[in-house]
């Protein structure tokens, strides 16, 4: 059985993508040609009408001049066709008219270009001219389409004895039009060439600017760009040459807290004055520059573009910064535990020696003394600071400070009930201030840091002072600037962010922070936090937050 032959499907070759410059060149060329043709047509239409009007006026002028010849008028009155023919032909030849026809009062030709038509009635209506009116028109006659002028023929007493009809052929009109048309077409061609050349230059420039990409690729690139910008987890802001925001993706809006309608506005109009605005605007140069926005730590990089603008990338380092701080604290605690383990081993050796020597009473006293001192310190901190988060922070910071040779003391006037509204924020503020004070003392060792916590109603006062070198008066505002620090930054994280973050956090809650010279000889940070405590949980009014909370009594030290 013979199987039918299957027809192979014809493969369609993919259409070659049209490039932007080619599309523009084709479109502009078509538009230029169309505009040139329409313009030439609109110009020729009134020119043709004007030529017809001129031809009719010329025919009328010849007819009026002919009608003024008395010889022709007498010949028409006498119906002398020979005289009328002779004189009319002289006028025709002298003026270049197509015909000069003289008729009697009945419209019978007395002259004509074709002598055989003399004695016959004219082909067009002679009544308007015979009634005394001058007529101009474009009419079809025995000689074809002509521009005509007709006037009455009068004798000396004014009586109408006939008419004079003069015609100028359409061929002569068109010959004049063709002569003008050549100039018009040359002008149109010159305009078309100039337009095509300008289009070609524009298309070549667009080709360079668009990198010769296809028209369909532009839409695809736009869609991909939008998906990429709004899908990445880093903030990205594009600025123009005047520092105005051209584009900001969702992550940048979140990190910077940009208000609605920020596009098209300058950076300084949507961000508060400070390091972050300076970095984005390019007033501070560098790579991986740290900056703070509210309670967020950002790493900013700015790259200038060829057009004079810039692209800024933002990375949220808040969680990483918290992890680094926790790692530093854990490392310090580990070192403290290692030292305590060594100290514990020494105490165990001492206890073992006392037991081997048979001094059991001294051994019991030694154990009671060592355990009692630590228990007393922990009990005193727990009694003064009832909030578990803050108490744990102070205990941990005391251990770390002790390992680094710094004594961390809690003033006797300290009293913090378990009524803190935002313990996390208080821990951030207090922890940064203690770290800053310990860092100022740790290189030399042997110093002291004193902490005061006092409540009055819903207001909480935090005071951290140290016995270090202090801060000169001219630099007391700079320590709160982002990225500024008087100490060398470690390799794993930048400095100059902790105090800036503390100030932002305090001011955001409506509080204030002040740096001045402390009673221990070093720096003193005083923080006032309104509405930081739950008033319903307070047992009574605490000390005046405006007074001095330091006491000459014994301090709780670690």
From TrEMBL:
Q: What subcellular locations does the record give?
A: Cell membrane
Region Disordered: start-end pairs = 536-558
Enumerate the GO terms in the molecular function aspect.
Answer: ATP binding
Top-level taxonomic group = Bacteria
Membrane topology, record value: Multi-pass membrane protein
Which SUPFAM superfamilies does the entry link to?
A: ATPase domain of HSP90 chaperone/DNA topoisomerase II/histidine kinase, PYP-like sensor domain (PAS domain), Sensory domain-like, Sporulation response regulatory protein Spo0B
In this protein, which residues make up the domain named Histidine kinase? 311-533
One Pfam family recorded for the sequence? PAS
* Coiled-coil regions, chain positions: none
**What EC number(s) are associated with this protein in UniProt?**
2.7.13.3
Instruction: Kindly list the residue ranges recorded as spanning the membrane.
Output: 20-44, 180-203
Which InterPro entries does the annotation name? Answer: HATPase_C_sf, HATPase_dom, His_kinase_dom, PAS, PAS-like_dom_sf, PAS_fold, sCache_3, Sensor-like_sf
Q: Does the keyword Metal-binding apply?
A: no
Catalytic reaction annotation: ATP + protein L-histidine = ADP + protein N-phospho-L-histidine
Keywords attached to this Swiss-Prot or TrEMBL record, sorted alphabetically, are:
ATP-binding, Cell membrane, Kinase, Membrane, Nucleotide-binding, Phosphoprotein, Transferase, Transmembrane, Transmembrane helix, Two-component regulatory system
What name goes with this protein? histidine kinase
């Amino acid at each position: 059985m013979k199987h039918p032959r299957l027809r192979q499907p014809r493969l369609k070759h993919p259409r070659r993508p049209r490039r932007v410059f080619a599309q523009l060149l084709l479109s502009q060329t078509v538009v230029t040609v169309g505009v040139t043709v329409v313009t030439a047509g609109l110009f020729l239409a009134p020119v043709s009408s004007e030529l017809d009007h001129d031809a009719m006026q010329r025919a009328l002028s010849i007819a009026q001049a002919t009608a003024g010849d008395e010889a022709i008028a007498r010949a028409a009155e006498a119906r002398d066709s020979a005289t009328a023919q002779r004189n009319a032909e002289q006028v025709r030849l002298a003026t270049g008219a197509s015909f000069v026809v003289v008729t009697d009062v009945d419209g019978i030709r007395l002259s004509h270009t074709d002598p055989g038509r003399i004695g016959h009635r004219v082909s067009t209506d002679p009544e308007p001219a015979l009634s005394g009116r001058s007529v101009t028109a474009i009419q079809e006659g025995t000689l074809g389409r002509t521009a005509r002028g007709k006037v009455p023929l009068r004798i000396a007493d004014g009586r109408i004895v006939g008419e004079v009809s003069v015609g100028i052929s359409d061929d002569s009109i068109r010959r004049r039009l063709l002569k003008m048309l050549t100039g018009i077409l040359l002008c149109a061609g010159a305009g078309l060439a100039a337009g095509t050349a300008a289009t070609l230059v524009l298309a070549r420039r667009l080709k360079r600017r668009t990198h010769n990409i296809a028209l369909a690729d532009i839409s695809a690139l736009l869609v991909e760009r939008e998906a990429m910008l709004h899908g990445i987890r880093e903030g990205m802001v594009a600025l123009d040459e005047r520092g105005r925001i051209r584009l900001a993706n969702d992550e940048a809006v979140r990190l910077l807290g940009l208000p609605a309608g920020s596009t098209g506005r300058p950076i300084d109009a949507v961000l508060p004055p400070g390091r972050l605005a300076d970095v984005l605007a390019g007033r501070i140069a560098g790579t991986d520059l740290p900056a703070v926005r509210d309670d967020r730590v950002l790493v900013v990089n700015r790259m200038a573009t060829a057009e004079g603008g810039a692209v800024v990338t933002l990375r949220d380092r808040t969680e990483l910064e918290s992890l680094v701080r926790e790692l530093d604290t854990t490392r310090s605690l580990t070192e403290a535990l290692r030292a305590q383990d060594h100290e514990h081993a020494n105490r165990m050796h001492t206890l073992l020696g006392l037991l081997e020597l048979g001094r059991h009473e001294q051994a019991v006293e030694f154990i009671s003394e060592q355990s009692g001192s630590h228990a007393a310190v922990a009990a005193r901190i727990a009694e003064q600071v009832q909030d578990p988060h803050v108490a744990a922070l102070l205990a941990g910071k005391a251990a770390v400070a002790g390992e680094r040779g710094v004594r961390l003391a809690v003033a006797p006037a300290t009293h913090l009930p378990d009524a803190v509204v935002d313990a996390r924020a208080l821990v951030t503020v207090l922890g940064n201030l203690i770290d800053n004070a310990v860092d100022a003392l740790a290189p030399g060792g042997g110093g002291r840091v004193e902490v005061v916590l006092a409540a009055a109603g819903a207001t909480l006062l935090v005071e951290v002072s140290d016995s270090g070198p202090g801060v000169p008066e001219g630099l007391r505002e700079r320590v709160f600037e982002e990225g500024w620090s008087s100490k060398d930054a470690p390799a794993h994280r930048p400095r100059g962010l902790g105090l800036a973050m503390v100030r932002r956090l305090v001011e955001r809650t409506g509080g204030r922070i002040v740096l001045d010279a402390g009673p221990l000889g070093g720096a003193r940070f005083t923080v006032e936090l309104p509405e930081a405590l739950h008033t319903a949980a307070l047992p009574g009014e605490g000390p005046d937050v405006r007074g001095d909370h330091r006491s000459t009594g014994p301090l709780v030290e670690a």
